[in-house]
Structure formats: C-alpha cells, structure tokens
Amino acid sequence: MNTIIEKILDHRSIRSFEDRPLTEEQIHTIVECAQAASTSSYIQAYSIIGVTDPEKKAKLAELAGPQSYVEKNGHLFVFCADLYRQDIVSEMEGTDVTESLESTEKFMVACIDAALAAQNAALAAESMDLGICYIGGIRNDLQEVSRILNIPHRIIPLFALVVGHPKNRSDKKPRLPKSNIYHENGYQEDKQEYIDQLEAYNETISDYYDQRTKGKRNDTWTGQMADMLEKKSRLYMKDYVEKQGFKKH
Questions:
Q1: Where are the alpha helices (DSSP H) in the chain?
Q2: First-to-last CA distance in the chain?
Q3: pLDDT tens digits, the chain, 249 residues: what are they?
Q4: CA geometry: angle at 40 spanning 78 and 27, to 5°?
C-alpha cells in the first residue's frame, strides 16, 4: 500500500459541494495531470471544456437530470472526443485523412483517450482532497449541449466531471467481486458460477442499502441493472455521432 493506492481505493462520488470555486492553480494542475495520461499513437484525440459561466452551468444541470451539483460545484469540466484538430492537421500538411477520421477505430481512440485523461484528472483532484462526480447525463441532449458549448464538427461531448470541496462524504459503494471482473487466460465461461457470484453480490448490495437508508431500501444490483437497461434511452446517439463526423465506417 502507498498513498496513491489508498486514494484510489477510497474513491466515492460526491454530489454536494461547498460554494467555493477551485483556484486557477488547482484547475491548471488537474488539466496538466489529464494531459499526462496515455494516448493512442500520440494523437491526443480529446479536449476539455471548463465551464464557469453560471447560465451555461445552469442549462447543463437542467439537461443532465436535472442535477443541482452540475451547477453548484467548484468547477465543471466537460471531456470531449476530439478529431477536429486532426482536420486542421490535414489542412496544414496537405493530406486527406477523412476516411481515417470517420472510421470506427478513430472514434474508439478518441473516446478512450478522453476517458484516460478524465481518470487522471479525477485522481489528481482527489489527491488534493477535492471530491468528484462523473456526469453522463449531458448525453441526454448532445445537440443542445453542443449549442451551449459551441462544439464544432468532429467533436463529441462525452461526459462532464464536477469537482469541488465536499460538503459531506458519501458512503463508498461496494464493487463487484474481483472474481466477477478479473478473468485469467480467457473469459470465465461457467454461467452458473457467474450467477452465483452475482447473487452473492446482490446480498452485499442489499445489505449496503439497508444500512445506508435504515431499512428504507434494500434493492439488488441485478435488479437495478435490469430496470435501468429495460428503459430505452439516448437512442438518437448513432445519428448524432455520425453527424459529427465519427464512426461512418
């Protein structure tokens, strides 16, 4: 164990923040750490938009849920898959890279690059005793998010990251057992063993909610997932992604 591992293992999402903005130094450090993340073939296919305008934050908070902590936090970062600068590179170098940029592979590269950068940013923030929460809710209406944030072609806002000084620290949620996540030398194919692991996890989660809510809630993880996945959501995404110049082949 060391302080980095301890900080990673102590992660929990924070959804209530003090009314205190991050300092410019904190923002700079978080972005610098994000940029230090690994990137496929040095392409650096992502961008980060910091949102400080109160009106824009309020609009994004409404689109995301509404979720009040998207508006009230220390700083709001929006992580984007970004191949726009590669279009500029193409112009500068006199090449045609359209087919490459519109491939599923480059779409995946941009999403992965953004996710790696965001996790570095999250860890940097948590190392400064700040709280964080990822916000996938901005994908409820990316057309409107794009309008608010002036998003050009070949850029997709993927998720936001709220960062701030926690008002209170929420409980740490139990994760799936390692045996259900980690497979050695090939995927574990025994379905009954998989089911047994998930049933054991359901008991853990049910106990967690029961204790956290003093008996008011005791639902299971598989129940949550089934309910969530049964609801159709964000079905416009394929059209939006293609409209932005990604994943056409």
A1: 3-9, 24-35, 54-63, 68-71, 84-93, 98-101, 104-127, 142-148, 178-181, 191-212, 221-230, 237-243
A2: 45
A3: 899 999 999 999 999 999 999 999 999 999 999 999 999 999 999 999 999 999 999 999 999 999 999 999 999 999 999 999 999 999 999 999 999 999 999 999 999 999 999 999 999 999 999 999 999 999 999 999 999 999 999 999 999 999 999 998 888 999 999 999 999 999 988 999 999 999 999 999 999 999 988 899 989 999 999 999 999 999 999 999 999 999 888
A4: 30
Give the Å distances, CA to CA, from 155 to 22, 30, 89, 229.
26, 21, 15, 27
Q: Tokens 């990822």 map to which residue?
A: 134
91: its two tokens: 């112009």
Bridge partners of 134, per DSSP, are 161
pTM value is 0.95
Rounded to 5°, the CA angle 122-127-133 comes to 30
Tokens of 26: 């904190």
Dihedral angle sign, alpha carbons of residues 70, 151, 243, 34: negative
- Token pair listed for 110: 């941009």
DSSP SS3 for 113: helix
Residue among 165, 168, 146, 137 at smallest CA distance from 68: 137
- In 3D space, the residue among 116, 157, 128, 138 whose CA is nearest the CA of residue 22 turns out to be 128
Q: Are 49 and 160 in contact (CB under 8 A)?
A: no
Give the type of residue at 184: E
